Amino acid sequence: MSRLVRGRAPGREFDIEFWQKLGPARILEAAWDVVVTAAAVRGISEDQLRLQRSVTKLERGRRKVPGSAATR
Question: What is this structure's pTM?
Fold first, then answer.
């Protein structure tokens, strides 16, 4: 796909259609290529790249109901 733009800045319709035609696998491949390129600029090798995971445990604290006696 290609487009020629003259004058005002174009809308996003072409970009959306372009990426939708590629499909999910090619989109992921292009995104990973951007990650690898950005890492290379920073001096990070592709071997060091991985998804980051973090685990968090959330607990709801006990709270009193306003305007009432102790609840049982």
Answer: 0.56
Joined together, the tokens standing for residue 4 give 């020629």
- Tokens found for residue 22: 């590629």
- Give 9-41 as a DSSP string: PP-SHHHHHHHHHH-HHHHHHHHHHHHHHHHHH
Listed in sequence order, the residues at least 6 apart from 48 whose beta carbon sits closer than 8 Å to its beta carbon are 39
Q: What is the pLDDT of residues 46-68, one digit of tens each?
A: 888 887 778 888 888 777 777 76
**Structure tokens given for 71:** 């609840």
> ∠ CA 30-35-38 to the nearest 5 degrees?
125
Distance of CA 72 to the CA centre of its chain: 45
